[in-house]
Amino acid sequence: MTSTLERPTRGAAPEARAREPRRLGFGRSRRSAWDLKLSPYLYISPFFILFAITGLFPIAYTAVISFMDWDLVRNSGEFIGFDQYAWVLSQPKFWIALRNTFSIFLLSSVPQLIVAIFIAAMLDQNIRAKTFWRMSVLIPYVMAPVAVALIFSNMFGDQYGVVNTTLQNLGLPAVPWHSDAFASHIAIATMVNFRWTGYNTLILLAAMQAIPREYYEAATVDGAGKIRQFFSITLPSLKPTLIFVIITATIGGLQIFDEPRMYDQYGTGGADNQWLTVTLWLYNVGWGEWNFGRAAALAWILFLIILAIGAINMVVTRSLVRDDGTRDPRTRRERRAQARAAKERMMADAAPAGVRGEETGR
Amino acid sequence: MTAVNAAPVPIVERDAPSLARRRPRPVRGSRPGWIVYASLGAVLLASVFPFYWSLLIGSGDSSTIRDANRSWIPGGNFFTNAAAVIGDPAVNFWPALLNSIISSGLIAASVVFFSTLAGWAFAKLRFRGGPWLLVFVVGTMAVPMQLGVVPLYILFSELGWTGQLGAIIIPALTSAFGVFWMTQYLRQAVPDELIEAARVDGASSFRTFLTVGAPAARPAAAMLGLFTFVSAWNNFFWPFIVLDRQNPTLPVALSLLQSNYFVDYSIVLAGVLLSTIPLLLLFVFAGKQLVSGIMQGAVKG
Predict the structure, then answer these.
(1) What letter does residue B65 receive in the DSSP assignment?
(2) Are residues A189 and A117 in the same domain?
(3) CA distances to A2, A36, B137 from A12, in Å
(4) How many domains does chain A have?
(5) For the stretch A108-125, what's the b/e string if a residue is b when 16 or more beta carbons lie within 10 angstroms of its beta carbon?
(6) Average pLDDT per run of 10 along chain A, which is 362 residues long?
(7) ipTM beyond 0.90?
(8) N or C: less crowded end of chain B, CB within 10 Å?
(9) Are both A139 and A253 inside the same structural domain?
(10) Which of A203, A257, A258 lies nearest to residue B298, judging by beta carbons?
(11) With a CB-CB cutoff of 8 Å, which residues 286-325 of chain A face chain B?
(12) Is the entire prediction scored with pTM above 0.90?
């Protein structure tokens, strides 16, 4: 049905012409066949052409440059093999930057997700003025990261920042937010959390609202309290969404630049590289020291790290999702043993596989 | 419930309360206690406090930050400080604002147009390699911007475009996320029969897109435009690399406020507030759409 309608073949054309000779001539139908065949490619071509120029070509060319000693004046390079990679990996700065990046990433993603889940759970209640509260969590999202960073680096000022003065008013010691590495990571992670918690809250809220309400009704009938319901129904149902959020947070978090760049007025990551991140170092190598070969090698190393983390995420994800889907009370070992036994039984009496297929299929 | 189904007669006012009573109350339908509102209030406070803090410091003078007994009521210097930001020759506030408006607007319009077009093709037109190409598009979303900046910079400096606004607009004209988003939306928004009907009527492929696809795509396109605009407006890394200090976008200009040896935070934070006003205005008018956009994307993505 559809195929004849979508692709008028030459065989169909005479028939149509017999009925409506003026509108569907031979030439026209050929043109419309071309139109149908080509236009999809035409529609998607802007994306692919532009991606080829500003995405694919730079990625490949970054790889080329990373094997070169790039000369900015001549705008060309000399092939030197893996030297730039060796240089990057031999720098203590690289390992410090990597440590800082992961530290900031963990400090920003883990608390953020926990808080986001709880805020979402509250927004999921039957509250008054829903739209108002939902909008209120999203206010920080419209603020530029640079602006957020400027405000927070002031609030986390070592001497006069509001955080330290408040701590001191409470009789607590002031925290060296800029000189101590871990403290600076907390401050920078706070900026990230400030901007993104509300956004992730809304994603999780949407996922919560997709949970069938009957689950909760059944749980209430069974006598489960709200907290039990949250841990036994809400959290397991959120798993796929959480994984999505974690993956996007990983890709974004490992590239963090704006916040550490604006944490002080120099933008070099602190006197002892306390908050130097990989991308911040990439910028400083590329556009501070003007060494494009090294910057390119660093970019590729960062990309490989992101890919590796992404792959780990996928593996963890898959096992989590599968566990979630089957809800099998047996442990994996029991399951395997039973499957093996079933298989042996099957081999033994060569019975039709359909009956026990469920167990052995896995 | 049954009453509604059985009786197509208009519901009389008198019936309304009894209907409401008979409707099965959702289990979690009861209004939550004060603790929920208190926590949400605390969250609201936390979202707003940094703004208030910048107003507090930004409306004082250079000594306000050091004043241990400063009051919690904003002072009267905000406009003086804002004027200092606007007048600072190193900041180029007005060109920066104009650049941000032009680049974000152009990027948003272009992303919406090309994404709708490509999304239409992926969602509703069958062509060889289509599904694979869509997988490819989605895969490109994981590629970090950092990976391409060095060659992009070399490319644009060869072209003599560094410092030009085009250098930040061109790479952002299309977006893999946008294509994916529009594909997802159009797939369920347009019934295939409608397209076939348009074809039977003799509409060309592009005409079908314009008359059937584009109107159906409007809600998702508006969301995409909104989000693209916000992220283009806030983008910092690439503009910071490629733009001149004389011809910045707003975030780049903002970053220059802090680059002086002596940092006067009353002026820095006044500038921060000033630069945030446009997006806060956008939030006032389109915040609801942003909220529902995120929530829709979450369900589909």
Answers:
(1) G
(2) yes
(3) 14, 16, 36
(4) 2
(5) bbeebbebbbebbbbbbb
(6) 42 44 47 72 85 83 85 76 88 93 92 92 86 90 91 87 88 88 93 92 89 87 85 85 83 89 86 90 90 90 88 74 50 68 66 38 33
(7) no
(8) N
(9) yes
(10) A203
(11) 286-287, 292, 295-296, 299-300, 302-303, 306-307, 310
(12) no
